[in-house]
């Protein structure tokens, strides 16, 4: 049986971090966001509906709003109602994509960053795995990204330098012991699950402490302390460190050397998007935003305004994110059915969207996966 990178840390890790695990009746929030998010989130919904009878699961769906278009329409990128419904009614959610402007828009900030803070989604987990039987290089890694701090706390200022009379922009980078212990622990737990399946596991801590000796230095120090202080639990895991710039180089040259990677928010974001190139497309890479009360599946791609509305967006990342969400909610069997169906589609390599060199539509790929389910 083929197993994805995600499946190797499924059940016990999920039960540790999701208090709503193993509920049969699940309420799922659907947040399409902008651009192709509106086209791929329905694919995730269709897959969940297809699971109802076989696994005894019942899904109720609530349509929710967030995104740049929501900001233009309402003045809020993340409406209070969306947060309240997620907190009070939902065990899981699917988030599509956000079309964030590259220049400053007064009053606007990224709703997914705000949502991660509001919901306590401290970990972004991104499995990157090639499918056996395809032309992709063998890749099987999980990038665990701290999700709540670093430069993403969005504390910035611009001022006039008195000496030169020109503008200077500054941003605050925050690394805390609490957040680092939390992300190091889930990364090591994921590595522990992979150890049980593969017989070996490696954790690579990524940082730039040779330059940022205090912030990245603290991240490095705490990750190592979590490992060293729990040698009875994690001692069979190989512990490595890698400076982020050399990490990027080695990840592309020697992806087989990496297993579980843990990184601060910014580095994790860059590494996981870059790693998608190793497996064909951002359109096939999933992620899960994990918190103590809710799990939100989120494809790694953006809103892709150049293809939005054409019906050719790749739904695979969303479908895989749907499976990943189920894994963290404790429903591993249902998740594995989804993973197997997706892998069969990719291995056959006939029904595929243009980003993978095909000419199929979003719905055609979705229907092919549904047929394999």
TrEMBL record:
Domain annotation Isopropylmalate dehydrogenase-like: ranges: 27-369
PROSITE patterns documented for this protein: IDH_IMDH (PS00470)
Record organism: Naumovozyma castellii (Yeast)
Example GO molecular function: magnesium ion binding
UniProt-listed Pfam families: Iso_dh (PF00180)
Name the record gives this protein: homoisocitrate dehydrogenase
Cofactor(s) this protein cannot do without: Mg(2+)
Family membership: Belongs to the isocitrate and isopropylmalate dehydrogenases family.
GO annotation, biological process: isocitrate metabolic process; lysine biosynthetic process via aminoadipic acid; tricarboxylic acid cycle
EC id: 1.1.1.87
Pathway stated in the Swiss-Prot or TrEMBL entry: Amino-acid biosynthesis; L-lysine biosynthesis via AAA pathway; L-alpha-aminoadipate from 2-oxoglutarate: step 4/5
Record keywords, A-Z: Amino-acid biosynthesis, Lysine biosynthesis, Magnesium, Metal-binding, NAD, Oxidoreductase, Phosphoprotein
SMART domains: Iso_dh (SM01329)
Superkingdom of origin: Eukaryota
Gene3D superfamilies associated with the record: Isopropylmalate Dehydrogenase
UniProt keyword Isomerase present: no
PANTHER family registered for this protein in UniProt: DECARBOXYLATING DEHYDROGENASES-ISOCITRATE, ISOPROPYLMALATE, TARTRATE, HOMOISOCITRATE DEHYDROGENASE, MITOCHONDRIAL
InterPro entries: IsoCit/isopropylmalate_DH_CS, IsoPropMal-DH-like_dom
Gene: NCAS0B06250
Keyword check for Oxidoreductase: yes
GO CC term, one of those recorded: mitochondrion
Catalysed reactions listed for this entry: (2R,3S)-homoisocitrate + NAD(+) = 2-oxoadipate + CO2 + NADH
